[in-house]
Every structure is written in C-alpha cells, then in structure tokens.
User: Which sequence fits this backbone?
C-alpha cells in the first residue's frame, strides 16, 4: 500500500480552486449598489441638486437605506449558508503516514493516494493504481453510458463512481483539474432561472425605454410654456422618480435571501437562491425512497446459515460502502479464503454483483428479477417484499460466467430500512394541497409500495415494475402510476421529462449517483442528508437533517415569497403607472405634473416602502396562483388609473397650484392606503395596527405639505373642500367598484 508522509502533504498543492462560484461580500455590496435603477436615480439627483432645492433629494436617502438593508440581509444569509455548507462537505479516504484517514475534498493534495467507492464524485484527476470501477461522465460529456475503468486508466474530476472501488494516484488538483478547467468560462456567479425576476425585469426594461423620451418631452413642454429652470427640473424629476419602482427588485432578492437564511436554521442548505421561488410553484414531488422516506440505514432481518457462510467470503472481496453492504458486513464475520478469478461490482443498472471463484464457478448476489430467479424463490420472501422489506438473492453457476443464466438458487437475505418520522403528516399535507407525489426506487416495486404504505402514503397507490415497461407505454405508465420500482438512472431522467411535458413543475429528491441525471433535469432538486457527493454537487438544495417535515417548511417558504411579492409589487407599480400615464397627459394637455420629488418620497415611503417591508415577511401559506403578472398588473392598473382620473379632474376644477398640490398629495395618500387595504386582506391584528400607523403618517404628511412644502394660504374655500371631498369620494368609490369586479 502506498502512503504520503506528513512532510509531502504539507509541501504538495491542495485541491482548492481560487475561482469561487459564489459571490463575495464585496460583490454583493457592489451588485446592490451599482444597479440600473440606482444609476437612473443618481442622474435625476444631480439635476435636482442644480436647483439648490436640496429638500427634494430625500429620495436619494431612501435608495441608500434600501441598498444598505438589502446588502446586509444578503451578506447575513451568505454567511449563514457558508457555515452550513461546511457541514455538507464530502469526505474522502486517503493514505497518509501509514494509515487511511478521512479528509475533505479541498484537503486532498497532488500526489495523494485516494480511495474511491460507489457514490463518490471524483474530486481530482488521476490514474487507477488498483481496483476497477464504472464511472458516469455525464456531467462532463453529456453521455449517460457508464464507462469501465481499471488499473492505469485515467479518471477525470467531475466523474461519478457508479460501481466498484479503486485506489487513485492524484495527478491534478484545484484549478489544474479537468472539471475546473472545463468550467472556467462559467465560473461567474449566475442567478437561477426565475419567472418572478424575469417578469419584473421585463417591466423595468419597458419603463427604462419610456423614461428618456418622456423626460425630453416634459422639458420641451415646460420650456415652451416659459416656466423657470427650477420648475421644469423639479416637475420632470417628480415624474421620473414616480416611474421608477425603486426597491422592488431589491425587495425580491432580499426576500429570497431571508428565506435561505431561515431555511439554514432548519439545517437546509439553499445552493441556488432563486430556486426558493420555484419551490412555491411545484405541483409534483418525485421522491427516491431510500434516504428520503427511509433513513437509508439497513438492518439484517433474516439470513440462512448457508447464505451467511458464502457471503462471509463473498463480501470480503468488495470495498462497496453502500447501505446494504455496510449492514451485511457489520452483521457477518468476514473472511478471505477463495482464489478469485474475476469480480463484477454491483451497479444500479444490473442490480447484482458476481465473483468467479477458482474450482467452484460463479456466485451472483442481487435482485432475483435480474438474476432470472423470480419463480425460484420461496413465497415467504415474496411476502417479505410486500411488507416493504428488501430481499436479495444468492445464486451460483458452475461455469465462469458474467451473465446470470441457468443459476442454482442458494438462498436470500432480508433487510429492513427505518422509516423517517413525520412522513405520514407530510404526505397528508401534500395531498391536501394537490401536490402529486411519485415515489421512485431501484428496489422491487412491491417492496417500495409496502414501505410507502407504512410511511403513511396512499394505500390505494398504484405500483409498477419499470423493468417490464415498454417504450411505447412509458409516458402513459408514468402519468397513471404513483410508485415505480426497478427504475434505471436513465428512466428517472425520462420520467421527469414526461412530467414536465405534461406541464408539471417537478421537484426531485435523491441521495445516490443514480439520481444525478434526474436531479439535473428537474425544475428544482434536493440532495438528502447523507447523500453522495455526486448528488450534492448537482442539487439546488441540500438537507443536513433527517427530518422529513422540512419538505413542508421549504414549500411554505417558497409560497411566502411569491404570494407576498405578488402583493407588494402592485404597490410599487401603482406609482409607476400613474407617473407614466399622467406624464404623457401632461405633455399632451400642458398639465403641470402635480408632485415634486420630495412629495413623491413622502407618498412612496408611507404607501409603498413601509407596508411592503412588513407585508413581504409575513407568513403566507396559500397556494401560488398561476396568474402572477395578471394579478399584479390588474391591481396596479386599478390603483394607478384611479389616481390619474382623480388628479386629472382636480386639475380641471382647481386653478391654484398650491391648493392643487395639497389635494393631489391627499388623493395619492388615500389611493395608496386603499391599495394597501386591497393587498392586505384578510386582515389580522398585525395588519390593522400597520394600517392605523400608516393612516396617521399620511395625515402628518399632508400637514407637512401644507405648512412646509406648498406653504398654501389657508383656509381653503368651501369650493376647495367640495372638490377635494368629491375627488376623495371618487377614489373610494372607484376602488369599491373595481374591487367587486376584479373579485
């Protein structure tokens, strides 16, 4: 056996890639600060500053505060996730100082002697010194066929060991390894695809395209009317500030970051921030039985003396570390007394292993269906399968063969897998929410059905053996059944594709290398506690707990984010729609835009900033509706259109510009409060207190406007009060009527 000394390890290059795929703290600060919206705000602020009316620059402080809060929340979430990520790191066995020790992948050094087993993702490049394995290089090549590797064959980092074990001499680590060189061009931070973010980005693009021509036309209109420079700049700036939904995109990213932070407290590592949103839209959950609804820790229930005698020798020649091998090796007293000609390791494709023994023939150990012995095993073992127990069969051929044909049955082993807690309650909840569940396994379908029923799954569920399903029936079988046994890795991937083709949003959980293809294909993927490094590397979310109920917590976080963002987005866009529509009307009909930047800052703070912050983080477990943008746009158009009509009519009946400003800011605040009422239902004590506080703040804002901003000559005439009252009544009536129609 080859070993590295302590001195050699200290001098060697470590397996650390300097190019990080996650953003640094500085990157987060920069990305939250130097945004397109902040850039537009800065330009407007520079123009406002030239008027020396510095009170109108308060909107800049709002942007600074929003950016600070957003950066703080993301950095806090980042650190929490990084601390959690340390717990999710995979360990590997290496030979050092005359013993075999476990180290993290980043502590592996060049020249290392590395042990690889079933389920490992190869973390470095190297060549095999001893042993033989099958590897899946689909992460590198896109091809799902397994490739056999033996002594002197080269292994590439990023490959997954699907069977066998070997000792590897490490030749390249860190940035020199194949996987890091291969991924060099994609090392920059990328956001996870998001329907929410993409829809909001479309709105922002439209707004940005409209702002410049509207600004130019407003300036030209003001100049044609002979208005002063200060008047033109302040009214134009007021319109442009109104168009910008400042803080909306920031609020989305902060909401997702906070969700990731909250989930980290439950030992759930979110590796892709925007997948939290996808979770809320999931309507089909695909579970791999082992490691998901069961712990994956097997125990021997029954074994005959004859089988035990053979397996003591048989298993001693395999270094497999899957749950079944570990359970049997712990139960048996292993010994090596055979002269072995050839070994065939277990693979998820074949469902068996074999050993050719000199003078005896070939022993096979695996699933009876794949050994063609289904009709030979006693009925007793068939009943064991139906009870949810795993049954493995030992058989023998007198010839030296690799394919199980004409085998003599020796006996079977029965193993059990412990069911996780809270599975029954979680299954029942998903059923009540119309979330379909598909249980997928490489085990016998009857055994999987038995385990599922024990775990609280629907006792009327339909189970099927996927090894007997023809290609022509594949799609129908997937859609009509609930439990699938003897599923191959390529079938798992194809199953996800079928469900997605049926317009399902699919979440896939798994723990083994045979789940990798399906995990990559799913809309969102989970790696279970104790999952292989291969499964962890491709999953969006990694569980560091065995608590099955965290699936519920994750789904609820996704729903909270989407439903609350849907509410507050309409608050932001109400102001945007009003500003765009009224700016256009101002250009056409020579109307003065009614709000200066400081007035819009007051309105935005009371009717958007404060309520959106509190409403975004409240609990919301309602199912996500598919018409996200329709709902947001409808609410925003109702609010924006109502305010446009009221302000337009006020312009017609009120000629005094100072009194016009007071009435318009009062209308805007009233309209905003009514919008908050619309999006806050159903009310609770918490929301009522918030609404009362905002109402008081709105009254104070009007007082500030009267005595400081507009400095109007009081009192109002009876005519002014009548017009103001009529316009407020119009706003209330419009919301009442439109609210009924929208419902």
Assistant:
């Amino acid at each position: 056996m080859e070993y590295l000394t302590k001195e050699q390890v200290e001098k060697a290059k470590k397996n650390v890639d300097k190019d990080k795929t996650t953003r640094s703290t500085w990157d987060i600060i920069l990305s939250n600060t130097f945004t397109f919206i902040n850039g537009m705000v800065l330009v407007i602020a520079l123009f406002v500053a030239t008027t020396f009316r510095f009170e109108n620059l308060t909107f800049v402080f709002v942007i600074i505060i929003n950016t600070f809060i957003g950066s703080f929340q993301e950095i806090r979430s980042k650190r929490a996730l990084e601390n959690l990520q340390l717990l999710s790191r995979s360990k590997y066995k290496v030979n050092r100082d005359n013993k075999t020790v476990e180290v993290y992948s980043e502590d592996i050094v060049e020249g290392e002697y590395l042990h690889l087993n079933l389920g490992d993702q190869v973390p470095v490049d190297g060549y095999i010194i001893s042993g033989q394995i099958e590897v899946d290089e689909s992460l590198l090549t896109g091809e799902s066929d397994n490739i056999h590797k033996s002594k002197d064959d080269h292994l590439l980092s990023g490959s997954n060991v699907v069977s066998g074990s070997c000792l590897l001499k490490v030749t390249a680590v860190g940035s020199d390894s194949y996987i890091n060189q291969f991924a060099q061009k994609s090392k920059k931070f990328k956001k996870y695809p998001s329907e929410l973010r993409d829809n909001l980005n479309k709105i922002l693009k439209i707004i940005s395209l409209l702002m410049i021509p509207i600004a130019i036309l407003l300036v030209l209109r003001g100049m044609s009317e002979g208005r002063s420079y200060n008047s033109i700049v302040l009214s134009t700036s007021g319109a442009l500030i109104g168009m910008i939904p400042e803080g909306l995109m920031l609020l989305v990213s902060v909401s997702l970051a906070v969700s990731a932070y909250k989930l980290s407290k439950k030992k759930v590592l979110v590796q892709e921030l925007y997948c939290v949103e996808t979770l809320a839209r999931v309507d089909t959950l695909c579970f791999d039985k082992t490691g998901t609804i069961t712990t994956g820790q097997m125990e021997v229930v029954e074994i005959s003396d004859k089988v035990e005698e053979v397996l003591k020798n048989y298993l001693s020649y395999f270094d497999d570390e899957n749950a079944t091998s570990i359970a049997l090796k712990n139960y048996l007293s292993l010994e090596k007394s055979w002269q072995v000609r050839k070994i065939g390791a277990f693979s998820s494709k074949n469902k068996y292993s074999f050993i050719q023994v000199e003078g005896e023939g070939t022993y096979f150990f695996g699933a009876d269906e794949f050994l063609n012995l289904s009709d030979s095993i006693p009925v007793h073992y068939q009943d064991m399968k139906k009870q949810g127990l795993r049954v493995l069969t030992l058989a023998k051929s007198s010839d030296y063969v690799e394919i199980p044909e004409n085998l003599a049955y020796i006996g079977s082993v029965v193993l059990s897998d412990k069911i996780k807690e809270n599975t029954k309650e979680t299954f029942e909840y998903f059923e009540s929410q119309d979330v379909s569940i598909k249980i997928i396994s490489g085990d016998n379908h009857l055994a999987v059905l038995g385990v599922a029923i024990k775990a609280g799954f629907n006792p009327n569920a339909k189970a099927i053996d996927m090894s007997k399903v023809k290609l022509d029936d594949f799609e129908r079988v997937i859609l009509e059944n609930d439990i699938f046994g003897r599923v191959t890795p390529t079938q798992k991937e194809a199953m996800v594709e079928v469900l997605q083709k049926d317009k399902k949003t699919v979440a896939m959980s798994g723990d083994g290398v045979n789940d990798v293809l399906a995990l990559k294909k799913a809309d969102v993927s989970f790696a279970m506690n104790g999952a292989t490094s291969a499964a962890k590397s491709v999953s969006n979310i990694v569980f560091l707990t065995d608590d099955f109920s965290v699936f519920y917590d994750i789904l609820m976080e996704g729903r909270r984010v989407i439903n609350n963002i849907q509410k507050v987005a309409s608050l932001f866009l109400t102001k945007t729609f009003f500003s765009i529509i009224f700016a256009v009307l101002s250009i056409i009909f020579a109307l003065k835009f009614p709000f200066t930047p400081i007035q819009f800052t007051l309105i935005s703070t009371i009717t958007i900033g404060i309520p959106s912050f509190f409403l975004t983080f409240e609990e919301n477990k309602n199912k996500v509706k598919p018409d996200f943008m329709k709902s947001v746009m409808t609410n925003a158009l109702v609010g924006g259109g109502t305010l446009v009509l009221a302000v337009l009519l006020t312009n017609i009946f009120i000629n005094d510009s100072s009194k016009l400003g007071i009435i318009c800011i009062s209308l805007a605040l009233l309209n905003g409060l009514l919008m908050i009422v619309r999006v806050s239902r159903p009310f609770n004590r918490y929301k009522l207190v918030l609404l009362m506080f905002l109402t008081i703040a709105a009254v104070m804002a009007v007082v500030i406007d009267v005595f400081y901003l507009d400095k109007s000559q009081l009192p109002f005439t009876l005519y002014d009060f009548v017009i103001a009252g009529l316009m407020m009544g119009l706003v209330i009536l419009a919301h009442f009527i439109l609210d009924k129609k929208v419902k």
